[in-house]
């Protein structure tokens, strides 16, 4: 009984799929042959950006000239091309950890992979903010505290927060962490939360008068109405490995 169940579950240990996929019956489903589905999830090369949101159209038409203008009005960014438009090649990313996540189903174990990736331009854009006051961030049992340090000290931290702080453009900082820091996901999220809270503090060098103007949607209403055309965009989901 157990042998039959093991044979039906999959052709190899781990339960990544059905038994048919592991055996390879000559229809292109085998592990070592017949993979004719083509590339998955690849980005299209040299394809012109066609914005589908109001914010995207304003950015492409150079009505908005920086990310800070978008954040000033708390406008949601729904297109990744907007970030690429302003930051471009200055963005750097680093994979912190990739771990499998298994889910028990009636057909066996269903395995997916979870990745933790840090991204930033080393100039203040990772969690938006740079300040010299202690802030704390929390995720799960992990509590991370950022403490200002004298110039030249560097970043005194564990490897995971150090990568995020470096990508944020922070040069000198002490860190303190409590809780189960071995859980990399919570450790990284707590650090990101602490960095994001630095944006809520205004240091004396930021005490300048801000003249509030109309929202870009109100200021450029005529432009949006004039250049608006219907754009049909076919959204295709990224290919996901089939599971039984």
From TrEMBL:
InterPro entries linked to this entry: Ribosomal_Su5_D2-typ_SF, Ribosomal_uS5, Ribosomal_uS5_C, Ribosomal_uS5_N, Ribsml_uS5_D2-typ_fold_subgr
Keywords assigned: Ribonucleoprotein, Ribosomal protein
Biased composition (Gly residues): 7-19
A UniProt-annotated Pfam family: Ribosomal_S5_C
GO molecular function, one term: RNA binding
Protein's UniProt keywords contain DNA-binding: no
Entry coiled-coil feature ranges: none
SUPFAM superfamilies: dsRNA-binding domain-like, Ribosomal protein S5 domain 2-like
Compositional bias segments (type: Basic residues): 24-40
Domain S5 DRBM, residue spans: 91-130
Renumbered residue ranges of the record's region Disordered: 1-46
Lineage: superkingdom: Eukaryota
Any GO CC annotation of this UniProt entry: cytosolic small ribosomal subunit
GO terms classed as biological process: translation
Family to which this protein belongs: Belongs to the universal ribosomal protein uS5 family.
Protein name as catalogued: Small ribosomal subunit protein uS5
Organism: Oncorhynchus kisutch
């Amino acid at each position: 009984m157990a042998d039959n169940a093991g044979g039906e579950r999959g052709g190899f240990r781990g339960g990544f799929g059905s038994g048919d996929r592991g055996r390879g019956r000559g229809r292109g489903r085998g592990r070592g042959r017949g993979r004719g589905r083509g590339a998955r999830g690849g980005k299209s090369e040299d394809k012109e950006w066609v914005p589908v949101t109001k914010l995207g159209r304003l950015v492409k038409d150079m009505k908005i000239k920086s990310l800070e203008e978008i954040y000033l009005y708390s406008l949601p960014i729904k297109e990744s091309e907007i970030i690429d438009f302003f930051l471009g090649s200055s963005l750097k990313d680093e994979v912190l950890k990739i771990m499998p996540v298994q889910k028990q189903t009636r057909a066996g174990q269903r395995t997916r992979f979870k990745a933790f990736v840090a991204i930033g331009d080393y100039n203040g854009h990772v969690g938006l903010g740079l300040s010299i006051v202690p802030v704390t961030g929390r995720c799960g049992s992990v509590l991370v505290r950022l403490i200002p340090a004298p110039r030249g000290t560097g970043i005194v931290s564990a490897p995971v927060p150090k990568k995020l702080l470096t990508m944020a453009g922070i040069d000198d900082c002490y860190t303190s962490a409590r809780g189960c820091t071995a859980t990399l996901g919570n450790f990284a999220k707590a650090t990101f939360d602490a960095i994001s809270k630095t944006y809520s503090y205004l240091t004396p060098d930021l005490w300048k008068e801000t003249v509030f103007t109309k929202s870009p949607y109100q200021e450029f209403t005529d432009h949006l109405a004039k250049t608006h055309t219907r754009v049909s965009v076919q959204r295709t989901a990224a290919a996901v490995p089939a599971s039984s």
